[in-house]
Design brief:
Blueprint: E1 8-13, H1 17-28, E2 33-37, H2 44-47, E3 51-52, E4 55-56, E5 61-62, H3 66-69, H4 73-84, E6 89-91, E7 94-97, H5 101-113, E8 120-123, E9 137-140, E10 144-146, H6 148-160, E11 164-168, E12 176-179, E13 182-185, E14 188-195, E15 212-224, E16 232-234, E17 238-241, E18 246-250, H7 264-275, E19 282-295, E20 301-304, E21 311-315, H8 321-338
Parallel strand pairs: 1-2, 1-14, 2-11, 7-16, 14-21
Antiparallel strand pairs: 3-10, 4-5, 6-10, 7-9, 8-9, 12-13, 13-14, 15-18, 15-19, 16-17, 17-18, 20-21
Helix pairs in contact: 1-8, 4-6
The chain binds flavin-adenine dinucleotide.
Length: 357
């Protein structure tokens, strides 16, 4: 028998936005945590733009759990800002730029039908805020951005001050063993394990039965002079202000692509789209690319393994990870610590049939 050190309550595999926010919530509930992460600089969280937008613009529909998530998402991160002594959350309205007269008409109609009009102010073409808005637009006040990398870096520093052990290495699933109701990985022991590996799920023999997709996305850092940085600007493509004359521009959606290698023609195609409505000169500063961990039904994966009751998953945050974790991580921590119910739509119990029956 292996000699057993004092086991952690939870070992979390993956220190992206899912793993980190859950670790913080579990610590708040008095649990002893270790986090393992291989610090992939091209992970989804380290690439993301961190936009938080309460609507699905295509149909002018509310995002999932919009009324529960968005009124408190900023306060959620502001609390972590106070604890860490760092700045990473920004309240910035999103200006949806209308493409043509029909688009303006559809937006007005759909926002009314979908109960969204209290969050939107129509912008008249004559009141253009220094922006090119020939068909006007709609200003959404309940939006903003999280500097995801800054949030993660500040959390890691906070962990280093004590409380949460962060171990920087690859987690090899083949080395995981179970003895006396405790999991061991070499000299590390834990009663329960939560896998929050993003795309790393494909290598996970316990949970790779779940239908995780990988939707590749490009983000450009751009230099654009004389464009007011008061709003996130959005058509289908978007521009997020990051200070000075710099913007993040995105994005693309490449189905089932794990590539992290930016291709120049994708940057050129995006810049062409921006040129359709931004008259200022646009200079490319840098280009990055990563896969988003996505689920076809748009609902993440949370919950307990159907056969190993001390293994759990936290994945599938798709393209709204920054806002979703503010709602899901506290609930997941309550589920893990006191057995409260998870929202049914995200519980992986929905995939048991066919795999374990
Ligand atoms: C181009 C792009 C743009 C995006 N824009 C936005 C946006 O504007 N707004 C928004 O809300 N979301 C956005 N997203 C999505 C968002 O980033 C994701 O939902 C979120 O980052 C997923 O976080 P995660 O923690 O689940 O996964 P990840 O960020 O992938 O984290 C998983 C971590 O686990 C580590 N890991 C994996 N396997 C192992 C292993 N075996 N051993 C050790 N470590 C391991 C990885 O290195 C990584 O650090 C975007 C994503 C992309 C790619």
């Amino acid at each position: 028998m292996l000699e057993e050190a004092t086991p952690y309550d939870f070992l979390i595999v993956g220190a992206g936005i899912a793993g980190v926010s859950l670790a913080l919530e579990l610590q708040k509930r008095g649990r002893r945590i270790a986090l393992i992460d291989n610090e992939n600089p091209k992970s989804s969280s380290r690439t993301a733009a961190g936009m938080m937008n309460p609507m699905v613009p295509r149909n002018v529909q509310k995002a999932w759990k919009c009324d529960e998530i968005y009124p408190s998402v900023f306060e959620y991160y502001e609390n972590w800002e106070h604890l860490f002594g760092a700045k990473f959350i920004h309240r910035i309205p999103t200006l949806q730029v209308h493409k043509n007269a029909q688009h303006t008409k559809n937006w007005t109609k759909r926002s009314r039908e979908n109960g969204f009009q209290q969050h939107l102010s129509p912008i008249d073409p004559s009141d253009s805020h220094g922006l090119p808005l020939p068909f006007g637009g709609a200003l959404c006040h309940l939006s903003g951005k999280l500097d995801v990398k800054e949030f993660l870096d500040a959390a890691y520093l906070y962990f280093a001050q004590g409380g949460i052990d962060k171990i920087n290495q690859d987690f090899l699933h083949s080395e995981l063993k179970r003895e006396n109701d405790v999991w061991s990985l070499n000299d590390l022991w834990s009663r329960r394990i939560v896998f929050a590996e993003g795309i790393g799920l494909y290598e996970n023999p316990y949970f790779n039965y779940l239908p995780l997709g990988a939707t590749g996305g490009d983000i450009l850092e751009l230099e654009i002079n004389d464009l007011p940085q008061d709003f996130i600007l959005k058509r289908k493509e978007w521009l997020v202000p990051i200070g000075g004359n710099r913007w993040l521009g995105g994005s693309t959606y490449h189905n089932e692509s794990l590539s992290t290698v930016p291709e120049a023609h994708h940057a050129a195609e995006l810049i062409e789209l921006f040129k359709e409505w931004i008259p200022q000169e646009i200079k490319l500063v840098s280009h990055r690319r990563a896969p988003r961990p996505t689920v076809a039904t748009w609902r993440p994966f949370l919950g307990q393994h159907p056969q190993h009751d001390t293994l759990y998953i936290y994945n599938g945050l798709g393209s709204k990870g920054s806002s979703l974790v503010s709602y899901l991580s506290p609930r997941y921590a309550d589920f893990l610590c006191s057995g409260s119910e998870l929202p049914e739509e995200v519980n992986i119990a929905r995939f048991v049939q066919g795999h374990f029956t």
